[in-house]
Amino acid sequence: MVRKFKLIQSLWLKWTKKRFSFTRQKTLTQKDVLVFMYQQGYLYLVLILITFIAGVNYANNLILGFCFLISAILCISFYITFKQLHGLQIDVSYTELGQVGQPLILELYFKQPQPQARYLWIKVDAQMHQIMFTDLQHRHAVELNPNIRGVFEYPTIQLFSVYPFGLVRAWTYMYLKGQSWIAPYAKYSVTQQQFSRQAQELDLDEFRELRDFRQGDSIQAVSWKQVARGQGLYVKVFEQHDDLQSIDIDYLHMPSTDHEEKLSLMMGLVEQCEQQQYAYRLLLPHAELVKGVGEQQMLQAKRLLAQA
């Protein structure tokens, strides 16, 4: 019995994934919307059955008329609930790169050809979102929290409505084909202190020469030692080592034996380099990122660490 149930469940899942596969955009048609009784609707059916039996047994036209009235309400509910989803265009937008510990935003854009009040529920994993809109376009954001580095498969989205009486439910599934890469959590350890000391050393430029004071020079650059000796007013000139202001973030040099912890420490160093605007190079066992700094460098570093 259990085996048969699992087989039916597996066949149902396979059928729904094939029928409700979703890329980036879809307009819900008749074949995309499922409709059936919902919770209180079963009690409502019992009420219809009781009034019908009572009306027939007692030959009471008033009871039969009431039975037909509530039956008509149920039939109308099927149509109204179905129309809540039918004809609705859905666009999905998501970022292809995220990070553990940071929310991953899934954006849903709803469009309809004519203004209509729509009362919908969105179910994503354990999250339930209730939305209502009458405009031609509506945006709703769902916040996901990935906790594992690597490929993130988006969960199944269920969109449904029980409007107007809660007797009937119309629903559809969205099996997103897209995926995102999740970078590791940024961890700071002893390596952070070493990096901070190295960054401070890079700020110390090498003294090159003394030159005569010129109008517009900063008073802070004056060599007061020469002034005290009566040798004149001179300014210290330093030689900057721009070529030294770069960091090699090497996987082999991370102070850990655990693969995931090594990647987390590297992620922490990447964030520090970006905060202090130091160019950095990323060295992984099977990949390398050339020296650079900035938003694009950060995105490439996250992607490499996510795929490592």
Give me a quick take on this structure:
The chain is of the alpha+beta class and 308 residues long. It is 36% helix and 33% strand.
How would you characterize the overall build of this protein?
There is one protein chain. With 308 residues, the protein is α+β, with helices and mostly antiparallel strands. It has seven helices and 18 strands. The strands form five sheets. Strands 1, 3, 7, 8, 11 and 12 form a six-stranded mixed sheet that branches. The longest helix has 25 residues. The two termini are 44 Å apart.
Cα distance spanning the termini: 44 Å
What share of residues is helical? 25-40%
Shape summary: elongated
| Number of E strands | 18
Averaged pLDDT: 83
What is the topological layout?
Layout: H1 2-19, E1 21-22, E2 25-27, E3 34-37, H2 40-57, H3 61-85, E4 89-94, E5 97-99, E6 104-111, E7 118-124, E8 127-133, E9 137-144, E10 150-153, E11 157-161, E12 168-176, E13 179-183, H4 190-203, E14 206-212, H5 224-228, E15 234-239, E16 246-250, H6 259-276, E17 279-284, E18 287-292, H7 295-307
Parallel strand pairs: 1-12, 5-13, 16-17
Antiparallel strand pairs: 2-4, 3-12, 4-6, 6-9, 7-8, 7-11, 10-13, 11-12, 14-15, 17-18
Helix pairs in contact: 2-3, 4-6, 6-7
Structure keywords:
308 residues; 18 strands; four-stranded antiparallel beta sheet; single chain; 7 helices; alpha+beta
